[in-house]
Amino acid sequence: MIQWYNATKEGRLLSQRVANATDSVRQWWRRWLNLNRGGWKRFVCLSLVGVSLSLAIASCNTQTSDTSDSSTPANKKDAEITLVSYAVTRGAYAKIIPQFTAKWKKEHNQKVKINQSYGASGSQARAVIDGLEADVVALALDLDIAKIEQAGLIQPGWKKEAPNNAIVAKSVIALVTREDNPKRIKTWSDLAKNGIQVITANPKTSGGARWNFLALWGAVTETGGSDTQALNFTTKVFQNVPVLPRDSREASDVFFKQGQADALINYENEIILARLNGLKLPYVVPNVNISVDSPVAVVDKYADKHDVREVAEAFVQYLYTPEAQREFAKVGFRSVNPTVAKEFSKKYIPIKKLFTVQDLGGWNAVQKKFFDDGGIFDKIQTKISK
């Protein structure tokens, strides 16, 4: 039996470990091997196994202790999070996500899978509220994330949980014109001239169109004009809008596919991205403009439900690194990182006067003043329809 046991793989392994034990143990081992009769022999077999296992356990315990002192973390269970964002960020996240997951794997020895959903910002916000279990949301405007907060899915104070008040990327408003710009459209005031037609989506149904409206309004009030002057100017512009598409995608279709109007009000980043994809769109960027700020937040309820808060928060923080900010800049966004913004400065038309939603009172005040039922936009539409 002793010979059989020593011939096995386990026996050879244990014998080798025993051979590396102290001299006194080896001498004890040899004495017992010389015993070969009856009960002693059976006792020897059991003793050998017991001693060998004891030594093997001691050896294994020593190795485990050594591993625990290593700087390499132990393998963790794979993590999976879901990012819900708006359509034009897809190109940036296609580059950012592999960078983040590789970095996390290297530093935490854990694989992370990031599911992604893209669509119109307002529709994405409604989807999350209705049950799309996003762990992170990166949307086109603060108001959309605020709606998710109001639904009880995000805790108050989310703007302070990320750098830059949770604004992760920026853009401005641009005016796409026809080839060679035959109507010589260069500034906001040109849109109010007789004989000019303009396409913009309906700000009652489109988040992007709200930015367009506020850019028109602020072009007056943020350069010394009054609310009355802003109302008159904005009314004149919307008198030149032949149709109000529901969202920015439909507005683009009306302008490009149907060939209506002389100018399309759109995000600068969308135009740059289109040009990167081979569409040589002529456009101008008014030098008085609004900062189109895109926020990001962890969806607390779902991040906790899925037990992925650590990864979700780390992903949000990673979006502010120079590496991630460069990917945003490559697809047309204006970086919130000063160093990266400087690197890409030649890509963007300078803005003389840049104002924000906060300069206009903040999103809650803006929504109530302009876009709620009975607000200024409704009054403009009533006046135009008469």
From TrEMBL:
InterPro entries, A to Z: Sulphate/thiosulphate_BS, Thiosulph/SO4-bd
Domain of life, per lineage: Bacteria
Primary localization class, coarse: periplasm
Subcellular location(s) of the protein: Periplasm
Entry-linked CDD domains: PBP2_CysP (cd01005)
UniProt xrefs under Pfam families: SBP_bac_11
Cited SUPFAM superfamilies: Periplasmic binding protein-like II
Keywords of this entry: Periplasm, Signal, Transport
NCBIfam families xrefs: 3a0106s03
Protein family membership: Belongs to the prokaryotic sulfate-binding protein family.
Identification of the protein by name: Sulfate ABC transporter substrate-binding protein
